[in-house]
Specification:
The complex is a heterotrimer of chains A (about 850), B (about 260) and C (about 300). Chain A is an alpha/beta fold and about 850 residues long. Chain A has 4 domains: about 1-255, Dimethylsulfoxide Reductase, domain 2 (3-Layer(aba) Sandwich), CATH 3.40.228; about 270-340 and about 495-550, no CATH class; about 345-480, Rossmann fold, CATH 3.40.50.740; about 690-855, Barwin-like endoglucanases (Beta Barrel). In chain A, about 25% of the residues lie in helices and about 15% in strands. With about 260 residues, chain B is α+β, with helices and mostly antiparallel strands. Chain B folds into 2 domains: about 5-205, Alpha-Beta Plaits; about 215-260. Helix content of chain C is about 70%, strand content about 5%. Chain C has helices at about 10-35, 40-50, 50-65, 95-120, 125-155, 165-190, 200-225, 230-235, 235-260, 265-290; strands at about 75, 85-90. In chain C, helix 2 (about 40-50) packs across helix 6, helix 6 (about 165-190) runs antiparallel to helix 10 and helix 9 (about 235-260) packs antiparallel against helix 10 (about 265-290). Classes of the chains: A alpha/beta (about 850), B alpha+beta (about 260), C mainly alpha (about 300). The interface between B and C is large, with 56 and 65 residues.
Chain lengths: ~850, ~260, ~300
């Protein structure tokens, strides 16, 4: 997501589920879509039925692979070479067969032609790091990662793409090292299969052809996860696959409402609508807006939409503080919590701080870190150091019961609750069908859902719980006061007179009002900086208007015929179903793909010039005139298609990332290789935070001599995340009753393990007992001339509920991506051996319902 | 009444098992207590409380394949189970659905042994035999069977048998063109034309199905018992006659002597 | 514990019904061939015949998942609880339905035969009456012995569906039927209640029948040798031992050796040998039944 925003301007799936059916090529990499997003396969299957080709890249032959025309095995950790090699193939092929590619798109819509500071250096020149690296701080000074600008402050371009400082040439030089042989030796993908993948996918680069990339956690959960997606972005831009029907980069969200919760500021670094959270340097709305958003663009043809951020911030503050937010008090900007400068507040950081005793209490809503957190053995111990813990969940989770957990995996012995001081509260929450509200799916559709049944027993909706909590806290502030009491006391809080808050009031507040008329706003174009409008999330402004609740719409018409269904629910931004769709037409506004036009310009023209404005199809991503008139003359009132980027172009070269403007191969924290096989001295991503160095306690790192096997974690269709919602359902547990470890027949033979045996998977952090699944779907990899095995484990299980089993996250390390801090769940080292017990010691009878018996 | 049929397209099935759960949910079938034994396939077989399940098949060889086949009652055109049933509990409807009337079944288990696909199973709680009944209650109220509704990819369809055959043939053409595999439409003619037609991308035996399913014949088996039996009886008669005659002769001889 | 859909009760039925019917056939054949000469054989056969068949029927009913619904096999249901014409339930495609009727009728006839055999002794019409009833019962008896084989053979079970199985069961039934009569006669002989000594003759007759059984078994194995369950039957540890030790060695080979002794056997030996034959016949049914249900 961070990467998509860095490249295109918005961090979301660019297209939507139904649109997958329009693809000619589907590349599923870093995702087992059939397993974890079965509904996506409705459309993948339809695309195949329409002649589409499915390519799947995965360490293991999965349910997705079973339906693929081309399956390429790739060891966990080979993502970037795999993609950079494809980019190299395409650039080489582009020079030989330019007619097979959409050169106009690359030249005009991407930053390929932009010139970069001549002092910029690539990793091949600086032994593995880009220019500006400070090894002590493990951080980059990005001053050389900038465009050359002309006198007016507009970036310089070379549309011939020949200038050695242009992004295209820099990219070409950068990927030149990733030839098929090298790629094969790093990824373990056989060269012949790799060649087929490159050729097949590159065919989607032709004008009128579409290729889509579907990815998920297999891509992101690496120390270089953001750069993996940057690789996809560059690949898709070179193939002109962004903005078109059947194209895009489709981040498959792992939970139905992850997109929605991210939009609403689930993450520490963003406010609703992806506004940056202020830090201590931000003292006013003015300095905040100038620091992050204003004056970034001097090119009149670039819309630079983020330049409007001040309107969104002020409207947000008006939504939160209502009448108390006035121009005079800077709309209560001072009430917003400010981050410490440069401090990270993501999952791993929080648990490290908790382990150190810096955090005293935790609210854990709908999350189960005792199973789902990385190095969860450590995270469970961190919970012991809390004074209080509140769990809000529909089940009695492992996290809520960490005080009676097994002392280690694969043992029946439990910790002593008497020695744990943490006070634990469990609030029973209503499930999704027991309350009304909306979810926002991967495709950015906000869909309204009605209450189907009343909550079980005394369980309550999240909204009720938060409402009561707020009222209680406000009551305490009223009585006792406290620092910045106004932040709470001045808050506008009116969700109706009833016990259950009015969810429609919440939805309307999110949409926002014209405060002069009291009417709901029709779209974020109306938001103002003067405090005359409010909006709880500018991206959702237009979701609940005077015309009604847009998310509740269920219209089934499909006027374009490409499956946009514009009247079914509502989608941000402003019901635009395919974002960046201005790139789906050429400079004159004519769709590249006549068969699947997303939008088309139908304005009147006289004398070779457009005289009126009219777009048909999807909501255009920027409704200005096309860049050129029918006669080929440039229009001055037009805007570039990537309106969310200051320069209006999609970034092949992304200067905003912490670890480099282009992806470069680094090994995972734990790697079977002794040095970086691409041939420089930097083996680990140089910009990641190394918790094993800064906080060595309980953060051991395994080495290849002790742990020679690559291990990865994944999910199965039958279970859901940390498992509470599924491990308690007998119809699901009968299908997947216990954790297992998948391994190749070759490895099993080497270790004397038979299918169905009980085995132990060990890493530097712990041990996991599991049942062996010996299969030809895993094959050993040949990496730099050496045979390396890989195994995989599902991570759903824990010690509570109907189906119990060892948690796989006991094995995983505490290290995250350099940009997002997403943990590296997908590649680490282990060893494997036959269990000396032959049984599941925590559950010797193998009977389900073990957890209940212990309870 | 038009013949109805289900179409199972293994080339579209991705083994998500939504159908397996939907079946249990609609028919309120109990979950089984299973263990992981080395395969995703679970429960390992059909039973009285598992009326449909996905078979996970990993054939040896290169390239790797992972095949999924939805197993359930085939609703045979010429069902061996209906023939075997001594109480008339097993019935075939004009639309092709073969179902077990739970009010009549006496639990003799003969259908369990007669079925060429080992589909019906005894429910030890109710004492009766059970199997897929094509969601007769849904179908009769204008709905599709639960598994069909649950299938995300359209690998399981239900409709007029002719239409299903058309879809199957169209898929055969597409798959053969895309992959070069030889596709078999299993059930087009087998056992009087099955009510569940399966699109297979390889030989039936690869998918764990009999290549040529057969209904057991009754008459030859009767003859193979009766004919030798009659011969034996005749032999026995001759034997006793011989013994009697011999005894009579001996008696006569005895009488003659005395 | 593995559960078999058809276990001990069915094995006992297959064995007992066949033995009873075979005893009936021996009685009738002896009667037809020798009239009063073989009264003791006839009476013994008549006394034996109904009971194993009744036991078999009862066990079959008990083995039903719904024993109180046994009548569903005899009477046809209409709507609700009413009985629809033609009132009687009969499914000609079902060996089970055939068996139900054949067994029922055989039990009735063999009971009448037993009663008539005893009551009719003093009367002049007695001989005609017993012979007539015997002849009427004969086809049913033959069908009962065959049915036990057809029932499990007319299935999709890889081991059972072997076409030779009815032959094996018919010959085995006859062997056990004769052995049953020998058994009773030997007891009577030991109790010195019997003047004539038919045992050597019957033993020789059974010797021949055992040879037929051996031949049918050999054919059965040859025809089915490609079936994995056949290997379970003849080569697996547990069932293989039951099969070879009880059915073949004790139930066939040893009796065969004793059958053709010129001087005949002492009553005690005959008694034990005939028991071995009966036991062998039972185990034969049992192992085939179980082996067919092991995957």
């Amino acid at each position: 997501m961070a990467s998509l925003a860095a490249t295109f301007g918005r961090g979301a799936m660019t297209n939507h589920w139904i649109d997958i059916r329009n693809a000619d090529r589907i590349l599923i990499i870093g995702s087992n879509a059939a397993e974890n997003h079965p509904m996506s396969f409705k459309w993948v299957t339809e695309a195949i039925d329409r002649g589409g080709i499915l390519i799947n890249v995965d360490p293991r032959f999965t349910r997705t692979s079973s339906k693929a025309h081309l399956y390429a095995p790739m060891r966990s950790g080979g993502d970037i070479p795999f993609i950079l090699g494809m980019i190299k193939y395409i650039i080489d092929d582009m020079e030989a067969n330019p007619d097979n590619y959409n050169m106009e798109y690359i030249r005009e819509y991407t930053t390929a032609s932009f010139l970069i500071n001549p002092n910029f250096k690539l990793p091949e020149e600086l032994d593995g790091v880009f220019s500006g690296y400070d090894p002590n701080k493990r951080k980059y000074d990005k001053s050389t990662w900038q465009y050359q600008k002309d006198g007016a402050g507009i970036p310089k371009k070379d549309k011939s793409l020949k200038n050695p400082n242009c992004v295209f040439q820099i990219l070409k030089k950068h990927v030149s090292r990733y030839d098929p042989k090298t790629v094969s030796s790093i990824t373990g993908t056989p060269e012949d299969i790799y060649a087929k993948v490159c050729k097949s996918y590159a065919e989607s680069g032709a004008v009128g052809k579409a290729g889509t990339i579907m990815y998920a956690m297999g891509t992101t959960q690496h120390t270089y996860g953001t750069q993996n997606i940057r690789g996809y972005a560059i690949l898709q831009l070179l193939l002109a696959n962004m903005g078109i029907a059947g194209g895009g980069i489709n981040a498959l969200r792992g939970e139905s409402n992850v997109q929605g919760s991210t939009d609403m500021c689930l993450l520490f670094h963003i406010l609703p609508g992806y506004l940056k959270t202020p830090d201590q340097k931000d003292t006013s709305t003015d300095s905040y807006s100038k620091r992050y958003y204003e004056g970034k663009n001097k090119d009149p043809k670039s819309a630079d939409w983020w330049g409007n951020a001040r309107k969104y911030l002020v409207s947000l503050l008006k939504a939160w503080y209502g009448a108390k937010a006035t121009k005079e008090n800077d709309f209560c900007f001072g009430y917003l919590p400010k981050r410490d400068v440069g401090k990270n507040y993501s999952h791993i950081s929080l648990f490290e701080a908790m382990y150190d005793g810096d955090i005293k209490g935790m609210f854990c809503m709908g999350q189960n870190p005792a199973v789902g957190g990385p190095n969860c053995g450590k995270e469970r111990k961190a919970l012991e150091r809390l004074d209080w813990l509140v769990c809000v969940d529909i089940w009695n989770t492992e996290t809520a019961n960490f005080w009676r957990r097994p002392v280690a995996n694969d043992t029946a012995e439990r910790v002593d609750p008497k020695k744990i001081k943490t006070e634990v509260f469990l609030l029973p929450a209503a499930s999704s069908v027991e309350k009304e509200g909306s979810i926002t799916n991967s495709g950015r559709w906000q869909q309204w859902r009605y209450q189907a049944v009343h909550p079980v027993e005394k369980s309550k909706s999240d909204l009720w719980i938060l409402n009561e909590l707020f009222k209680a806290v406000r009551g305490l502030y009223k009585q006792e006061g406290g620092p910045v009491a106004g932040a709470i006391l001045d808050m506008a809080w009116d969700y109706g007179p009833y016990d259950e808050p009015d969810v429609h009031k919440v939805a309307k507040e999110i949409n926002g009002y014209d405060l002069k008329t009291g009417k709901l706003l029709p779209s974020f174009g109306k938001l103002q900086t003067d405090g005359s409008t409010s909006s709880g999330n500018w991206l959702y402004c237009a979701s609940y208007t005077e015309a009604g609740n847009m998310a509740a719409r269920r219209g089934r018409s499909d006027p374009t015929g490409i499956g946009l269904y514009p009247e079914w629910s509502w989608c941000w931004p402003v019901n635009r179903r395919i974002i960046y769709n201005r790139a789906s037409v050429n400079l004159k506004g004519v769709p590249w793909d006549a068969e699947h036009p997303v939008i088309a310009f139908k304005g009147a023209a006289t004398g070779g010039k457009y005289t009126s404005k009219k777009w048909v199809g999807d909501v255009p991503d920027g409704g200005w005139y096309p860049l050129q008139n029918p006669d080929g003359s440039w229009r001055s009132d037009a805007k570039y298609p990537f309106i969310m980027k200051p320069e209006g172009h999609a970034r092949i070269f992304a200067m905003g990332r912490a670890d480099g403007p282009l992806p470069e191969h680094y090994e995972p924290l734990e790697t079977p290789l002794k040095k970086n096989p691409i041939g420089h001295g930097m083996i680990l991503n140089p910009a990641v935070v190394c918790w094993d160095k800064t906080k060595p306690e309980e953060n051991p790192v395994g080495t290849a001599d002790k742990y020679p096997i690559i291990c990865t974690t994944y999910r199965v269709t039958e279970h859901w995340q940390a498992g509470m919602m599924t491990r308690n359902l007998p119809w699901l547990t009968e299908m997947m009753p216990a954790p297992f470890v998948e391994m190749s027949k070759e490895l099993a033979k080497e270790k004397g393990i038979k299918n169905g045996d009980r085995v132990h998977v060990k890493t530097a952090r712990g041990l996991m007992g599991a049942w062996a699944c010996v299969t030809s779907r895993f094959k050993p990899f040949k990496l730099v001339g050496k045979v390396v095995h890989q195994v995989g484990v599902p991570w759903h299980w824990g010690y509570e509920g109907h189906s119990c089993g060892c948690s796989a996250n006991i094995l995983t390390p505490h290290i995250g991506d350099a940009n997002t801090m997403i943990p590296e769940f997908k590649a680490f080292l282990c060893d494997i051996e036959k269990s000396p017990y032959g049984i599941d010691r925590a559950n010797p009878s193998g009977e389900l319902g073990h957890g209940e018996e212990v309870a | 009444m038009t013949q109805k049929a289900m179409l199972i397209d293994t080339t579209k099935c991705m083994g998500c098992r939504g159908c397996q759960v939907a079946c249990k949910q609609w028919n309120q079938l109990a979950a089984e207590n299973t263990r992981f034994t080395g395969s995703y396939q679970n429960p390992p077989n059909l039973s009285a409380s598992t009326w449909t399940l996905i078979k996970f098949i990993e054939p040896e060889g290169d390239p790797i394949r992972w095949l999924f086949r939805k197993e359930q009652c085939f609703h045979c055109g010429d069902p061996a189970c209906v023939d075997a049933c001594p109480t008339g509990a097993l019935k075939k409807r004009p639309d092709g659905i073969v179902w077990i009337d739970q009010k009549i079944c006496a639990g003799c288990k003969y259908c369990v042994h007669a079925c060429p696909f080992q589909t019906p199973h005894t429910d030890h709680d109710t004492g009766t035999a059970k199997k897929c009944r094509m969601c007769i209650d849904r179908v009769d109220n204008g709905l599709k069977p639960a598994c069909v509704t649950a299938c995300p990819t359209g690998a399981v369809l239900y409709g007029a048998r002719e239409d299903m055959l058309k879809v199957a043939k169209k898929r055969k053409a597409i798959v053969e063109k895309q992959t070069g595999a030889s596709v078999r439409i299993y059930g087009e003619t087998e056992l009087g034309g099955l009510g569940v037609i399966t699109v297979l991308a390889d030989k039936a035996s690869v998918y764990g199905l009999p290549e040529q399913p057969k209904k057991p014949l009754l008459l030859p088996r009767w003859l193979i018992g009766i004919v030798p039996g009659a011969v034996i009886l005749y032999g026995m008669f001759k034997n006793f006659t011989g013994v009697r005659e011999k005894a009579e002769k001996e008696e006569k001889a005895k009488e003659g002597q005395s | 514990m593995v559960h078999y859909d058809w276990g001990l009760p069915v094995a006992i039925d297959l064995f007992a019904a066949g033995m009873g019917a075979a005893a009936f056939m021996v009685a009738v054949m002896a009667d037809l061939a020798g009239s009063k000469k073989f009264t003791s054989i006839r009476l013994t056969g008549a006394i034996i015949a109904p009971w194993p068949a009744i036991l078999g029927v009862l066990l079959l009913v008990v083995d039903l998942g719904k024993p109180f619904r046994f009548w569903e096999m005899l009477l046809k249901r209409g709507e609700g609880l009413s009985i629809a014409p033609p009132y009687l339930m009969f499914n000609p495609g079902s060996a089970m339905s055939w068996g139900t009727w054949i067994l029922t009728l055989f039990v009735i006839i063999s009971l009448i035969y037993l009663i008539v055999s005893i009551i009719a002794i003093p009367f002049s019409w007695g001989e005609i009456a017993t012979k007539t009833i015997g002849i009427i019962g004969l086809p049913f008896a033959l069908l009962v012995t065959t049915y036990t084989g057809v029932l499990i053979s007319a299935t999709s079970n890889a081991l059972w569906s072997n076409y030779l199985l009815p032959f094996v069961f018919v010959s085995s039934a006859i062997v056990t039927g004769i052995a049953g009569i020998i058994c009773i006669l030997a007891i009577l002989k030991m109790l010195k209640l019997l003047e004539e000594d038919f045992i050597p003759g019957l033993e020789k007759l059974n010797g021949v029948m055992i040879v037929v059984l051996l031949a049918s078994l050999a054919l059965f194995i040859i025809v089915g040798i490609m079936q994995p369950q056949m290997l379970t039957l003849i080569a697996s540890a547990k069932l293989g031992i039951l099969f070879w030790l009880f059915s073949i060695i004790l139930g066939i080979i040893i009796p065969l050796i004793f059958s053709f002794k010129k001087e005949g056997n002492p009553a005690g030996t005959s008694f034990i040998i005939s028991l071995l034959v009966i036991l062998g016949g039972f185990f034969l049914r049992y192992v085939i039944l179980i082996a067919g249900q092991i995957a």
